[in-house]
Amino acid sequence: MKRSLQAALFFAAATVALLFLALPVVAIFTRVPPGRLVRLLSNGVVTNALVVSLRSTAIAEALILLFGTPLAYFLATRRFPGRAFLVTVVELPLVLPPAVAGIGLFAAFGRTGLFGSTLDALGLQIPFTLAAVRTRAAGPAKTFFRVALPLAGGGLAAAAALSFARALREFGATIMFAGSLRGVTQTLPLAIYEQFSLDFDTALAMGALLVVVSVALLLSLKLSLSWQPSRRTSVSAFARSS
Fold first, then answer.
1. Nearest 5 degrees, angle CA 142-CA 63-CA 235?
2. For every one of its 242 residues, what pLDDT tens digit does the chain have, with 9 covering 90 and above?
3. Measured between alpha carbons, how far apart are the two ends of the chain, in Å?
4. What's the rounded Cα separation, in Å, for the pair 79 and 87?
5. How many angstroms separate the most distant Cα atoms in the chain?
6. Closest CA to 217 of 152, 133, 159, 155
């Protein structure tokens, strides 16, 4: 009897959780007929926001891979005083509220910010522009490209997918630091916020588009995590090529 009650309570709790998670997504696709949702995606507001989102996210992804990968490799392979503090600084954006990140960026790079006057003197402006929205036998370089990268391939692909998703969904920091200028800095989340009170159906269409993109990213993430070459195979291949 006690087990039956526990099972029933567990099932009920799981059902409520699933409904809470699934109903909002289902509502996006059922509130407006699918055909109309697709037609609404041709709205200029949507296309402009989509272009800005793809451009800004692609730039952010490239910068993350270009600078983040060497930093991650350095932190993973080196031990030095202050490493724990540096790791904390790197992890801080994961828990920092986006609005705080936005106002911090503005305080640092705004016209009257910490480095704003220097950038202004060089003719550079970041706020309210697209730039704001963002082995023993081998040497270190060969080891990095022939051993470290292949071994970390699945993790790097997963990190790339997660960073792409995070950049695509960013709202708080973007609206505070870049603004919501249509065709310039207005990404899909910002456009949804604007259209929420102007044209709810268009906001739903953009929401549906982001749901589709998010599902695709989740699937690619799961595929990348399922593909993990063994350490022994990768190292053996490297030894043979050396």
1. 25
2. 677 878 788 888 888 888 888 888 888 888 888 888 888 888 888 888 888 888 888 888 888 778 887 887 788 788 888 888 888 887 777 777 777 777 777 777 777 777 767 766 766 766 666 666 664 444 455 445 554 555 555 566 666 777 777 777 777 777 777 778 788 888 888 888 888 888 888 888 888 888 888 888 778 777 766 665 544 444 444 344 44
3. 66
4. 11
5. 77
6. 159
Q: In the Cβ-directed half-sphere of 37, how many Cα atoms lie within 13 Å?
A: 18
Q: Give CA–CA dist 208/87, Å, rounded.
A: 36
Q: Number of helices and strands (H, E) in the chain?
A: 14, 0
Q: How far is CA 105 from CA 63, 127, 128, 190, in A?
A: 17, 9, 12, 18
Who contacts 30 (Cβ-Cβ below 8 Å, separation ≥6)?
none
One DSSP character per residue, 20-65 reads HHHHHHHHHHHHS-HHHHHHHTTSHHHHHHHHHHHHHHHHHHHHII
- Is 0.70 surpassed by the pTM of this model? no
Cα separation, 114 vs 123, in Å, equals: 16
Q: Tell the residue number behind the tokens 């990213």, with chain if given.
A: 217
Q: Scan for tokens 């870049």, then name that residue.
A: 178
Looking up tokens 């993790």, which residue turns up?
A: 155
Q: Residue 159 corresponds to which amino acid?
A: A
The residue count of the chain comes to 242
Report d(CA 154, CA 159) in Å as an integer.
9
In the numeric block, which tokens belong to residue 193? Answer: 């916020």
H or E element at residue 5? helix 2-31
